[in-house]
Amino acid sequence: MDVIEIVARVCYSAIFILSGINHFTQLAGTTQYAESKKVPMAKTMVMLTGVIILVGGLCVLFNYQVQYAAPALIGFLLLTAFKMHNFWTVTDPMAKVGEMSMFMKNISLAGATYFICCAGEMCAMCKM
User: What are phi and psi of 63, to 5 degrees?
Assistant: First the structure.
């Protein structure tokens, strides 16, 4: 790997690694937010998604098993975008803007993750 690729991997994976850690260090608050969005088994789901994004981020960072990590991250990002950041249901204008920003971030990251996975044609998704 050249220096540019290493820097890119660090920059890209940081959001997943830090968010994954945050799922555990801020478990009570994150669980409360998930409960407010009517996520079933909220605490379990917060811990499960924390593992998915932490491990997925580390896999991308170290270019290890990306063909499995990328689809898991894409699934997380899309499900989270539509379940947790459903801005179209929010009535408070300020909260709506925040949820829309998070929704767009997740959709954009899902696209970037697909690109990262398929850039080297490392996964089955690229053959679709």
Answer: 55, 45
